[in-house]
Design brief:
single chain; alpha/beta; Urease, subunit C, domain 1; TIM Barrel; 2 domains; five-stranded mixed beta sheet; four-stranded mixed beta sheet; 14 helices; 17% strand; globular
């Protein structure tokens, strides 16, 4: 099997910059960091560049096409937070080194008519009969629950259907412009989280308001896949999150879009535009614009307070499909913008990089990736310059490897 030697690199291993400047790959695996270069190795001279672990997007709604786009930006793993790419439905992806790898929650538990039902056109909303929506194969799609018993009852079904973790929707529609949507109550949420824990499943919550966040933390949730945006943070809520040990995927790019802030600046960056087609550029230049009264400075202050309190932050975008209605975010590109937002909030570039590599791998127990070390997957991103001091350099992409296979770009 051919050995690839990446030499003369600054190596950020997911936690720190290493003294070693050589990484050896054999097949899909990193076999060594440092050491001599074998005479028969294919050498990649990384002089002037930085080698990073492949990036995570810890909040997406994805497809095989979107995973291919993500990989072009050095995102080698996406964590789907609502979608169909559960264990039984991604065999074709796991061995395809032209797309990012994926893990999935399947579909989140919500009441009938609850979020995200309002995003579907009238007449096409799932579960219109008040029961669980099903796809053409008869598989569970939208687990609707209004009682503790119903929420607990869906957990083994989601596990059997191949969900990698369990998601709960805690959303009354306030931020999306649909106030009064049906929302899980505390008892129902508590029962679902407890049952998921009994099955050994990681739990995450969609919560865009401070009150919903408090509910999720009270239920014992493992992670919040949004940061609230309806008001400034308080010492109390920061303390509750920190004391719980929960992680947070802020998705600042999504909050900005909800406030009417577009991704036009990213779309104008040639490093982004060269990797996106017209539909995605149009999407990136648009925005959700459902909560214009929100204040980005409040969200950034919340992110900084969480970081200062020792809360694990994970990079996520909430990228979905290329339509202006879901604008302001794009697979792959928005991961780089989210890291910039974390630095804008007060994290160091090194800390933002950890939030896109080692931290999500650790929190989602994907122990074969997220770092550069012998025996781990050779999911790698080589960029020009030093993003550990200038986060903007993550977009100066020179090469991407997924399981040791170098991505061929046109």
């Amino acid at each position: 099997m051919t050995i690839t030697a990446i030499t003369h690199a600054r190596v950020f291993d997911g936690e720190r910059v290493r003294d070693e400047t050589t990484v050896l790959i054999e097949g899909p695996t990193v076999v060594a960091v440092g050491g001599a270069v074998p005479a028969e190795a294919d050498v990649v001279d990384a002089r002037g560049g930085t080698l990073l672990p492949g990036l995570f997007d810890a909040h997406t709604h994805t497809s095989q096409q979107a995973l291919a786009l993500a990989l072009k930006f050095g995102v080698t793993t996406e964590l789907e937070m609502q979608g169909a790419l559960t264990k039984a439905r991604r065999a074709h992806i796991e061995d395809d080194d032209t797309v990012a790898d994926v893990r999935s929650a399947g579909f989140g538990i919500t009441p009938p008519g609850g979020h995200p039902s309002e995003l579907f056109p009238e007449g096409k909303r799932p579960g219109g009969d008040g029961g669980p929506a099903r796809d053409g194969l008869g598989d569970l799609v939208m687990p609707f629950a209004t009682t503790p018993e119903e929420a607990a009852g869906f957990i083994p079904k989601l596990v059997e259907a191949g969900s990698d973790y369990i998601k709960f929707m805690v959303d009354d529609g306030t931020v999306e412009g649909h106030p009064g949507l049906p929302c899980l109550d505390q008892a129902t949420l508590n029962a679902g989280v407890a049952e998921a824990r009994r099955h050994g499943m990681l739990t995450v919550a969609h919560a865009l308001t401070l009150d919903a966040t408090r509910m999720a933390i009270e239920a014992g949730i493992d992670g919040l896949v949004h940061v609230f945006m309806d008001r400034p943070h308080t010492d109390e809520i920061i303390g509750l999150i920190a004391d719980s040990g929960a992680f947070v995927v802020p998705c600042v790019v999504l909050n900005a879009s909800m406030m009417g802030i577009t991704g036009a600046a990213q779309a104008d960056d040639h490093r982004v535009a060269s990797r996106l087609d017209g539909a995605w550029l149009t999407t990136l230049r648009a925005s959700f614009d459902r909560y214009p009264q929100g204040k980005l400075e409040d969200v950034l202050a919340t992110v900084k307070a969480l970081h200062d309190a020792g809360v694990d932050l994970l990079v996520g975008s909430d990228a979905s499909v290329p339509v202006p209605f879901l604008g302001g975010v794009a697979h792959g590109a928005s991961v780089h913008q989210e890291m910039r937002h974390l630095v804008q909030a007060g994290l160091s570039p090194l800390e933002a990089l950890r939030a896109a590599t080692a931290t999500p791998a650790r929190r989602f127990s994907l122990n074969d990736r997220g770092r550069i070390a012998g025996g781990l997957r050779a999911d790698l991103l080589l960029v020009d310059g030093d993003p550990t001091t200038d986060i903007d350099r993550t977009l100066d992409i020179r090469a991407v490897w997924r399981r040791g296979t170098r991505l061929v770009t046109q």
